Amino acid sequence: MEMNSSVNEFILLGLTQNLLKEKVVSVIFLFLYLGTLLANFIIVMTIRYSQTLQSPMYFFLFYLSFADACFSTTTAPRLIVDSVSEKKAISFNECMTQIFAFHFFGCMEILVLVLMSFDRYVAICKPLQYTAIMSQCVCDTLVKLAWVGTCIHSSAQILLALKLPFCGPNVIDHYFCDIQPLLQLACVDAYVINLLIVFNSGTICMVSFLLLLISYVLILHSLSNCSREGRRKALSTCTSHIIVIVLFFIPCIYIYARPLTVFPVDKMVAVFYTIVTPLLNPLIYTLRNAEIKQAMRRLWCNKV
Prior knowledge:
The protein is mainly alpha-helical. It has helices at about 20-50, 55-75, 75-85, 90-125, 130-135, 135-160, 180-185, 190-220, 230-255, 265-285, 290-304; strands spanning about 10, 90, 170. It has a 3-stranded mixed beta sheet. α4 (about 90-125) packs antiparallel against α6. Putative odorant or sperm cell receptor. It is found in: Cell membrane; Membrane.
C-alpha cells in the first residue's frame, strides 16, 4: 500500500495542542463515545428482540443505530487515545483503513436516513399502499442496495487516497485521517483529485440532503388531509428526523462540497457529524418515540 509514498506514518495534531485542554477533551469524548455505544446498543437489541417493533421504520432504525455505533468508532477511540498520548502517530496503513471505514459507515448512515425518509413518505402519503410497497422483501433489497452503494463510495475514496504520493511533510492538522487533510500533504497538484472528491462525497451529501428535504416537504404538505391526532403524530416523527438531518448534513456539505481549502474551524465542524450526531440519533428517536420506550420497558421487565 505504501508504494506511492516515502512516508510510513502520519502525526495527528488533534483538536488542540494545549495539554490541559487535551485532558479535558479525552474525558469529555470518552463519556460521549461510551454513551453513543450504550444508546445505540440498547436500540439495536430492543428492535432485535421486541415483537412489537417489526415495521419497516424500525427495520431501518436498526441499521441506522448499527451504522452510528460503527461510524463513531472509526474516529472517537483514536481521538481519546491521542489526547493522552505524547506521540500522536498513525501508520500509513492504519490511516488508509480509517479513511475507508469512516466513509463506509458514514455513507451507510446517509443512505439509511434516505430510506427512512422514503418509508415515512409512503406511510403518510400513501397509507393504503404502504404494506404492499414497503414489504419485507423490498426493505431487504433496499438495505442491500445501500450496502453496495456504500462499498462503491468508500472504495472510490480509498483508491483516490492511495494514489496520493507523500514525500516529506506528515503532520495532519486534524484528529483523524480523512482525504481532504491528506491532500494538503501530497507532493503533487491535487486539484483534479479534489474535484473527484467533491463529485463523489459532495454529490452524495447534496443529493441525499435534497431528496430528504423534498420528501419531508411532500410529507408536511400531505398532513393537511390528516386528522388532528394523525397530524400531531406525523409532525412529531418528522421533526425528530429533520433535526437529525440538519445536524448531520449541514456540516458534511460544508466539509465535502467545496474546493480544497482547509480552515481551523473544520475540526470542530467535523465533531458534529462524527461524534455528536451518532449520540443524538438514538436519544432523539428514543425520547420522542413511545413505542420504543414501551418496548424497552417490556424487555427490561422480562429480563429482570
